[in-house]
Write a structure and sequence with these properties.
CATH superfamily: P-loop containing nucleotide triphosphate hydrolases
CATH architecture: 3-Layer(aba) Sandwich
Shape: globular
Number of domains: 1
CATH class: Alpha Beta
Order of helices and strands: EHEHEHHEEEEHHHE
Number of strands: 8
Strand content: 15-25%
Number of helices: 7
Structural class: alpha/beta
Largest sheet: 6 strands, parallel
Oligomer: single chain
Distance between the termini: 22 Å
Strand order of the largest sheet: 1-8-7-2-6-3
Radius of gyration: 16 Å
């Protein structure tokens, strides 16, 4: 496992991996507020129009479902996502040959948004960012075999926590509630995610 500190080097590795394949799926994994979505968006710019980024967040269970299951206060935990739907979408993307609709996520209302993006046949490099792509429990163990290449995003925890609290405040939580959520459910999830780092092919560690 190598540690990469420049996204240009990450893009080069992805291009090399894609050179002899009709399509590849690349996983970008890390704890909340590690910078996964920003990294994925930057890589799309570096890799060009044949690439697209999609996120695991679009597969959050709806709020009403979380409430009915008694999981709303653990939103973001592994069992608060529609993992079967996520695996189905990745499987269809890997199969190729047809357009695949992918949901997104609206943080302002904390709800999934159907049909947020479409993976067309022209997209040869699919960047998937999410928390549990390398997990080996709860149905998530079906994800890693669908990835051709995986990167774990590593960041200093103090910086990540600052970003996380700021994000929660931006999307409506009070400062106290934001800090409590970051130190509670988010921290529990971060520990689970961190334990999967050793399964990644490479580590991305960018300067803050």
């Amino acid at each position: 496992m190598s540690t990469l500190t420049k996204l240009g080097d990450v893009a080069r590795l992805i291009r090399d991996a894609a050179a002899d394949k009709p399509r590849i799926i690349v996983g970008i994994v890390g704890p909340p507020a590690a910078g996964k979505s920003t990294i994925a968006a930057t890589l799309v710019q570096l890799l060009g129009p044949a690439s697209i980024a999609i996120g695991m967040d679009g597969f959050h269970l709806p709020q009403a479902t979380l409430v009915s299951l008694g999981r709303r206060e653990r939103m973001g935990a592994p069992d608060t996502f529609a993992v079967d739907d996520f695996v189905d979408v990745l499987t269809r993307i890997r199969r190729g040959g047809s357009e695949v609709s992918v949901p997104g996520f609206d943080r302002t209302i904390e709800e999934p948004v159907p049909h947020a993006s479409t993976v067309t046949a022209a997209r040869r490099t699919i960047l998937v960012e999410g928390n549990y792509l390398l997990a080996e429990f709860g149905g998530w163990e079906r994800v890693a075999p669908l990835l051709d290449l995986s990167f774990f995003v590593r960041i200093e925890n103090d910086i990540r926590m600052q970003r996380l609290v700021a994000r929660h405040i931006e999307f409506g939580k009070t400062p106290d509630a934001a800090a409590a959520w970051a130190a509670g459910p988010d921290a529990d999830n971060a520990r689970l995610i961190g334990a999967t780092a050793e399964r990644a092919d490479h580590v991305i560690e960018l300067a803050a």
